[in-house]
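Sequence only, no structure available. Ideas?
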Amino acid sequence: MKHVVRLTWIAALLILLTSYLQPVASTFLTGTRTATAHAQPATTCQPPTPPTQEARLPAPSFGVDARFGYNVVLYGDTLVVGAHLEDHTRRVDGVDRPDAGAVYVYVRDSGAWTQQARLTASNADEYDGFGYAVALHQDTLAVGAIYERSSATGVDGDQADNGTYSAGAVYVFTRSGGTWSQQAYVKASNTGFEDHFGDRIALYGDTLVVGVESEDSSGTGVDGDQSDDGAEDSGAVYVFEREGGAWAQQAYLKSSNSQARDWFGRGVAVFEDTLVVGARGEDSGAPGIDADQTDESASGSGVVYVFTRAGATWTQQTYVKSPAPAPNDGFGGSVALDGDTLVVGAAYDDGEATDSGAVFVYERAGRDWTLRARLTSPQPAELQYFGSALSLHEDALAVGVPFDAGNASAASGAVYLFRRCDGAWSEPVQVTSAVPRANNQFGRSVALHGGTLVVGAYMEGNGAAYVFR
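Reply:
I predicted one. Tokens follow.
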């Protein structure tokens, strides 16, 4: 009898210990710290749970060399994939237009993805590159066509004019039920030759942001002189606001220290009333927050500018440099923003190896930004370009590395998933294609939202998009 009681007591104790030490269930996006059987310091953050592949979406059969997956964007159960070099054909479109471009919309229902729409421009023309950039928020989609040639300015101008080579345009679509329709045709207020308007776009609610790194004005600050073309490739950002279904330009933004070949607008992200803009070619060698903008000792080191909005007025809040700017780091070539967290890519950072790349994480308290982490590949290599693509959602971060060797050979590509817990960032989990091949560039584009990761591999055949959960 004593043995039975003793065994029962031991079994109860084991059950209690097992329940106490059982890992906390979480997806790779929750950011909840996972307890383990080994005691960890409060600041230890366990790596995210490796996601599993849910779907592979290939380019349509007629999309030869379409660059399907060059850009992807995700919101909830809606996924958009750009194919900016897709040819329009007589069989599909009734007319032949090489490289006119298209965008594909997919929706998920019970784990299955189906195509909801194929979208093209209202003035589709050959070599327009419609789908080069995409941005999605709720039921609004913005699409960039960087080689579009209209000389029109503003919103809903003359689409038929083809007088300005590679000026670029952005098209806004909205969804009602399962039907998409074009809501607006958006051009720069100072449309210019080879500006490539729509090269970078971001969307949040009724705010559309368009980055144009090839714009040439020598103006500075907010709503400066747009007519002067004295600073080649200095770059600009255009902010549009929607009211009652109508879009209008709200602001024209330049950097406070604008110069030629700064490429201001290379990276853009917006969240509520905060906008961040990367200028990968800016030259200051001063490190840190709000440092000396006049210093020009680190050519091409790069910078990020933070703007905030009060009412309808935008002002520059912060000037963010790497903690150790170096020539040609390209800091600001990619950016991501969620709440008070800013992530900046420097794909040419040489800290671990030549152009191995790095990612910097900043957090804001009030109006003050502080560097919290510098993230790198667990296996840095030359010409890896870690940080080429970024996506941030709550406490999860995806870093696209299209030139990573992955688990195959050169440029097969990979994505590294990090997560934050109690202010600390975990070691990453590597995600690769199930069938990696050299030069697929898996990770050229990434998107995170609500427990789902989407990865573009635009060089895999005619292109593909992978979905993981």
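Residues 56-468 form a domain with the Methylamine Dehydrogenase; Chain H fold (CATH 2.130.10.130).
Hope that gets you unstuck.
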